[in-house]
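In this supplementary section we document a worked example of the pipeline. Step one takes a protein sequence of length 220 as its only input; no multiple sequence alignment statistics are reported here. Step two produces a three-dimensional model, which step three serialises into structure tokens for compact storage. The input and output of this example are shown verbatim.
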Amino acid sequence: MSEAKSGRSQLTSSSGSNGAWTGRQAYLLAVFCLLLGVALGYLFRGSASTATAQAAASTTTQPGSVEVQQQPDANAQAVLTQAAAPLLEAVNKDPKDFDSYVKLGNLFYDGKEFPPAIQYYERALLIHPDNPDVRTDMGTAYWYMGNAEKALAAMETSLKYRPGHPQTLFNLGWVRWQGKQDPKGAIDAWQQLLKANPDYPQRQQVEQDIAKAKEHASRG
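The serialised model returned by step three reads:
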């Protein structure tokens, strides 16, 4: 099995359906960003990043073929096309190329183009469905699209394959708290994280997050 992993596992914002924001969701986002800015301080990645992009673009996926659509911004398109070209060639030659699908997902994720990122992560997971890093990254992409339900589903599935996976449990806590207004569920996820990973590098920070979630829960 390939060992390729993605690394976009830290959540930083939330909510909204299909990019449409309500006043309540905007408020939740502001609270969420403030909490993360104070509590986290930096982007925690699930593993080493395998590809980056400075441009935004969208893709269409056909059976056995992957293509990049043209965008009006020629400079941005050129950057994305150059970065994606060898990966697209690889998956067109070999539809079972797990590593290249993951890298394509990362490329579009880093470009904040979450729908195509999800498509490539899904293709990768058809090959190796038990990869928790890719599945968690797919969940965070759903989260950034404002779909907390699919984000939760992806993370819960990840835990079925890898109970105790730290990045999955970390993000699951935030989605439960900020996406479902369930601080008790967040506390449960983070307590599982610390129990399964006693040497977790950000243990002190997670403990602080648990304390904040408990305070929230106590206010009803």
